[in-house]
Each structure stands twice: as structure tokens, then as C-alpha cells.
Amino acid sequence: MPGFTTAFLLEGLVNDCPRCHTPLPVDSLFCSTCPPDSDRQLRFRLAHALEGRYEIIRLLGRGGMAAVFLARDLVLEREVAIKVLPPEMTRDRQLVARFQQEAKTAARLDHPNIIPIHRVENEGGLVYIVMKYVSGQSLEETLSRGPLPIAQVRHVLREAALALGHAHRRHIVHRDVKPANIMVDEDGRVVLTDFGISKAVQGTTQITGTGTIIGTPHYMSPEQAKGRDVDGRTDQYALGIVGYRALTGTHPFEGDAQSILYQQVHEAPPSILKRRPETPPDLRMALDRALSKNASARFPTMEEFASWVNGEHAASIPSATTTVVSAPAKTVSRTAPASGQGAGIYVAMGTVLAVIALAFVGIPRLQTAVEGRAARSEAVAADAEVRRAPAKKYVSLTVRSIPRAMLYVDGVKVGLTPVTGKRLSPGTHYLRLQQRGYHTVTETIVVKGSRPIQRQYQLRKNSGR
């Protein structure tokens, strides 16, 4: 594009190499020493194609299938995100057609936890999507700092599951659920992006002709890893791995891509209980079921998965002390164990929890229940440790803010500040302060010892955008 390049040079926007600052030839963007900067070139092309309608501000990120730029809609005066396919992909007309069709289908999704798509265009040799800009950060960025509080894990999984359920009811499968495609805005709202894009790419002969599997191995379901047809249960498996990582800080499977895919198909994930002992039983059971190798053993809908990870079925998980199996006689006793019987009874109770798990997943899922028996036995031992432990000592939390704001602790509304005497149990808690017209404030607090905790916040006003 010599004319386009010259125009930029004449305007003085580019007069030396952005890397080594060597003076550039009149018709070049880069010197002969440095390799071309593909993102910079793409930004210039996009700015030229959208001149007068959008102002390109900066690169937000780049993935395997697209680059995303922050831009300003000059007509509606709002910030937007523009996702652009790499130019080399636009040479495949079949890919472009599928990409546009999938994006248009995704644009019909109307859900508070799905990023709205404004436009889908193909012009100036570029194929791009204009969507709402979410001011916040991806879950990938959040998890790079370590595991999340239990309450926040529940919140993220529930919101993402409901968004996926909305798409599944409209016969749209995401196919690439992962933390990088889950955004958390400044108010703590969870939103999903990139619906349909992986399907568009996967459906082209140019991309899949080499046998390459489109997706992210760490979050790929067994059926997807084997190249089989997928449905909404594939998204459920991927979201289950997102939950596993959010709880433990690690992926269940590690290694190179082929090793991870083999493990996704053939191996059970390491026990969540060992990596995060305080994980509630209902949340563990929900993730165990979502991570079943056989898709038919998972939850039938994302709404049901959402209700389990949200804690709505916690009361339905039987207490380990109410039902016991006697090992020699294989009979059920309804009485609590005597102190001297503990070791033998807890071993026997592993069988009970396996039966409970079998009822939970259904008779055809016997293999899944057997695989989970060891984890259930560990859960019994952990529950026993909790019962033997001394009663929790709570600490007092005081929160003040200027101006007054609504305080949420672990996703639960507490009230307007100042808040005094809020009891916090030992462990990790997630605080959030919200007030209209001001930026939301969040903080993770780790409670140790018995000293009272006090917080004072000065909220910053929104810029008005």
C-alpha cells in the first residue's frame, strides 16, 4: 500500500523505525534490519479502513485467531473493542464466510453475561467484529495472581454457566471456553466473548487439513480432543477445568500439547480435595461431574450445573456422620460412631459416599463413580478433621468509605458503609464496594489470627464515558 504508507509519512506519524529509530526509506514502514511488526501494520491497515468512523487507540491483546484493538466510535462517541482476523486467514473465502455467519449468529445472543456484538464487516481486505468494550480484566489475568476465594469461584462459574446455557438453548456452542475468553468488569460482572469464532475456523479445510485441532488443549474436552462432534457438554467440561484452576491455581493436566490431550482423554484429574482442602463438598461434586470423560455423565444443562456450583444443593449432600456402613456385615447403621471405631468406620464410609456419588450421576455412570471413590474417602477424612478441630474464631471487620457505598463480602450484600462488627471466619474473603458514578473497589482479605480488621476507602469518580 505505497499510497497509504506515504500518507502516513507525510503526516509525520512514522519517520523512523519504531524499534531501532533508524530513518526509514520514503516508502517503508520498517527498516531492513528489524523484522516487520505485524501488529503495527495491522493497526495501520485497520485505521485506514475505518477512518472517519473509528479511532484506533491501542492493541488490547492477541490470540491464536485474532487481534483485538481498543477503538472509539466517532459517531456514537463510545469505546468499543474491534477483533480482527489475521490477514493471511482472509485469503480463504470459505473461512471468511463462516466467520461472518458465526459472528452474526452470536450477535443474536442477548444476555447480560455475553459481550454484545455491534457489527460484522469485511472491507479493505480485513474481516473484523465490532463489540462492546468491557473495562476490566480477563479471568486469565486474575488467575495469574493465584487461586480465588470460594465465593468468587462460585460467582464466576454460575455467571459463565448461565451465559453458556443461554447460547446452548439457541444451538450455539462456544467450543473455546477458557479464562482468556471470560472477562470480569469493574463491577465484578462476568461476561463471555468469542462465541462461534472457533467453529468458523475449525470448519475450514485450509485450517484443519493438516490435522490440527482448533482449541486450547488445557481446556479441551475428551470428545473435542478426539475430533468428534461436540455439543453444550463440551463447554461444560471446559468450564469445569476453569473452576478447577480457579480453586487450585493449577491446571489438572500439564505437559506438551499432545501429552495434555492424552490426559484429557484417558486420565482422571488430580483430587481437588488435596489441592484445596476447604473446597465445599457440593462444589467438588459438581466439578467432578462436569469433568466426566463420558459426556453423558455430565449435567444435562448448564442451568443445572449453575445451580450446583452456586451452592443451591449444599444441603442435599448427606453428612458423613448420619449414615455409616459396617464393614463386616455390610449393613447400614443410623447411629453416630463411637470414638474407638473411627478408623474402620471412615474406611467403610468411602463405600457409602461412592454409592451416594453413583446415585448422583446415575446407574449408567458406574465407572465415573468408582473412579471418584478415593476422592470421596478423602472428603470423609477431611470432614472428620473439621469436626475434631476447635470452633472457629471470628474476627471483626469495619469498613468505611468516602462517599458511602454498598459493601459486598464474598458476593453477599452487607449494607451501606460504614459497616462495623461484620464477622469474618479465618480464610480468604472477597470485598467489593459499589456506588453509582464511582469506580468499583475490590480487595481480597486473608483473615489470620484474631485482630480486628479495619478498612478505609476513597472512591474515585467515573470519567463519564
Topology:
Blueprint: H1 2-10, H2 38-49, E1 54-62, E2 67-73, E3 78-84, H3 93-107, E4 117-123, E5 126-132, E6 136-138, H4 139-143, H5 150-168, E7 182-185, E8 190-192, H6 197-202, H7 205-208, H8 222-225, H9 232-248, H10 257-266, H11 272-275, H12 281-290, H13 302-309, E9 324-325, E10 332-333, H14 342-361, H15 366-371, H16 373-388, E11 395-402, E12 406-409, E13 412-416, E14 419-424, E15 427-434, E16 441-447, E17 453-458
Parallel strand pairs: 11-17
Antiparallel strand pairs: 1-2, 2-3, 3-5, 4-5, 6-7, 7-8, 9-10, 11-14, 12-13, 12-15, 15-16
Helix pairs in contact: 5-9, 5-13, 9-12, 14-16
Q: How many beta strands in the DSSP annotation?
A: 17
Specify the helix fraction band.
Answer: 25-40%
Write down the Rg: 26 Å
Q: What would you call the quaternary organization? A: single chain
Proportion of beta-strand residues = 15-25%
How far apart, in Å, are the first and last alpha carbons?
35 Å
Strands across the major sheet, in which order?
Answer: 1-2-3-5-4
> Structural class per helix/strand content?
alpha+beta
Residue stretches low in confidence (pLDDT < 50, at least 5 long) are 1-14, 203-212, 319-372, 374-390
Mean of residue pLDDT values? 76
Number of helices: 16
How would you characterize the largest beta sheet? Answer: 5 strands, antiparallel
Shape: globular
